[in-house]
Amino acid sequence: MLWDVERRESMWEYTHHTGRVEAAAFNSMRDMCATAGADGRIVLLFADSGKQANSFLGAEEPMMTVQFSPDDERIAGCAADGKLYLYQVGRWGLAAAE
Predict the structure, then answer these.
(1) In this structure, are residues 88 and 67 in contact, taking their beta carbons and an 8 Å threshold?
(2) Per-position b or e across 68-87, b if 16+ CB within 10 A of its CB
(3) pLDDT score recorded for residue 79
(4) Mean per-residue pLDDT for 59-79?
(5) CA triple 24-26-30, angle to 5 deg
(6) Other C-beta atoms within 10 Å of 34: how many?
(7) H-type helices in the chain, by residue range?
């Protein structure tokens, strides 16, 4: 769930991974959120609604970290096996594996 600390209420419930969420990161504009999951996926969400913009499956192991690049054009995720995954973020949060 994403919690609004000012209003002290839940903004939306999270249902996009089939396992645990291992990490989350917001882009610099705070309008997109990326999550790394135990299911080996990175999920890109619209922060205001929680709706999924994209999902990236690439790791056979759990994704343990996720981070936006400083210019918000890429997302990096590292899996439990040490492999690094890079995705190019396009308009509306769409991305492709590099």
Answers:
(1) no
(2) beeeeeebbbbbeeeeebeb
(3) 94
(4) 93
(5) 150
(6) 27
(7) none
